[in-house]
Amino acid sequence: MNSFRQRVRARETVLGTFIKTASHQVVEVLGVAGLDFAIVDAEHAPFDLATLDTMALAGRAVGLPLLVRVPELNTVPIGQVLDLGAAGVVVPHIYTAEAARSAVTAAKYSAGKRGFSPSTRAGSYGSVDGAAYRAKADAESLVWCQIEDKAALANLDAICAVEEIDCLFLGRADLSLSLGVDSQKHPDVVSAVKATAAAGNKAGRTVGIPISDVTEIPDLLALGITTFVHSTDQGYLTAGVRTLLRHRPPA
User: How many domains does the chain have?
Assistant: First the structure.
């Protein structure tokens, strides 16, 4: 069976969601429900390292690849969440090839700068050969770079050329702010999405995008975008309650 990284890099259509709630049970529920993956949003929600630890364990228990969106491009948190057993990292605000390479350097042992300890969950608590663990970690861990800045649009080809980058992950909310427009449907944002998809297609690089409306998927697939993050755990909970309330009998 192909690893999740292989599926992403092969540009299979994969579906996930953001997790905003600090709960390992949420991870279990989403895994049992059958999602392909989930992203713990440690950039915009309150997650401490101990909570991420139990959530990573839950992801492994139910076979749900769990990525962590780290708050920033920083070597320490990237290495920590991978040590906990996260499947990969989503790194915000990558707008140069140099930043993309720095993200890879922080995540991959082969770059020679990621701190190494075989005593972690990812290293099977020291029970496997260190060299074999490092090779496996580098082969399977994912590095997704968020394209969410106007400056990134001029550097798409250079970012795509960084071989270990697994996905250009569009962030239309921040991108609209960076472009100085007030809607993710603004023509400038639409053009940026198309430009990113085109750059990814040309380089054979996977492109992903968060969506709030599943009816977008066919049009985005037509652009060559294959990785989709729909809503959040909180969004699903809210939608379920609102569906119930619409069926409440009148007083």
Answer: 1
Q: Active-site residue numbers?
A: 44
**Is residue 150 domain-resident?**
yes
pTM of the model: 0.97
What b/e sequence results for 96-116 when a residue is b if at least 16 CB atoms lie within 10 Å of its CB, and e otherwise? ebebbbbbbbbbbbeeeebee
Helix 97-107 × helix 75-84 angle, to 10°: 40
The pLDDT profile of the chain, 251 residues, written as one tens digit per residue, is 579 999 999 999 999 999 999 999 999 999 999 999 999 999 999 999 999 999 999 999 999 999 999 999 999 999 999 999 999 999 999 999 999 999 999 999 999 999 999 999 999 999 999 999 999 999 999 999 999 999 999 999 999 999 999 999 999 999 999 999 999 999 999 999 999 999 999 999 999 999 999 999 999 999 999 999 999 999 999 999 999 999 999 88
Residue 151: which CATH number? 3.20.20.60
